[in-house]
Specification:
two-stranded antiparallel sheet, 10 helices, Hypothetical protein af1432, 2% strand, mainly alpha, 187 residues
């Protein structure tokens, strides 16, 4: 099942999503909706509903993770499965690190949410360099191995950004302006 926007907000409440995480998720959803809408208009088979729900729910496991120390992507994936949201479980489970991405995959809801999450710092849309700097500072722990993994993940994201925007009528720098006009509701 793909949850509606209202269902997503209900689940955010049920799982005690913190307001700052909810704000981040709403902004990620706005970015993802802009990108998916334009890809659909360009002829790509992407589900707008799955993108919206996946983006809203991508951090559903974050509050529990802050308490337990567990992997919030995996916790979120399990929450989705427990709530019969099988259609978005993989999107939630891979929003931090894409598994098995080879660079030429079709545009998917998972890829759009993954990219959109990398463009939002707290509830502000930023470029990839700004987000990378934040992620390294917050999670890198001055550990060379962790920092290299984060940097490699963002290198993949840069390639995805280039691919996405080669198909869109606007560039990555325009996402912030377009997001200001994005309303978050079921269409």
């Amino acid at each position: 099942m793909i949850p509606s926007v209202d269902n997503c907000f209900q689940l955010m409440s049920v799982y005690g999503m913190l307001d700052n995480i909810k704000g981040h998720s709403v902004t990620v959803a706005k970015v993802a909706r802009i990108i998916s809408r334009k890809l659909i208009e360009s002829g790509f088979a992407v589900s707008f509903e799955k993108v919206t729900a996946g983006a809203l729910m991508h951090d559903i496991g974050k509050t529990a993770s802050l308490k337990s120390g567990g992997d919030h992507s995996e916790i979120g994936r399990r929450i989705c499965l427990e709530n019969n949201l099988d259609e978005i479980a993989e999107i939630v489970g891979e929003h931090v690190i894409l598994k098995n991405y080879n660079g030429s995959d079709d545009f998917s809801e998972k890829l759009i949410v993954y990219y959109s999450d990398k463009r939002v710092n707290h509830d502000k849309i930023v470029n990839l360099d700004q987000r990378l700097k934040y992620i390294l500072g917050r999670y890198g722990r001055n550990d060379e191995r962790i920092c290299r993994a984060i940097t490699d993940n963002f290198a993949k994201c840069r390639k995805i950004e280039k691919r996405i925007f080669s198909r869109l009528p606007f560039g990555p720098e325009e996402v912030s302006l377009l997001a200001d006009a994005e309303l978050l509701e079921d269409e």
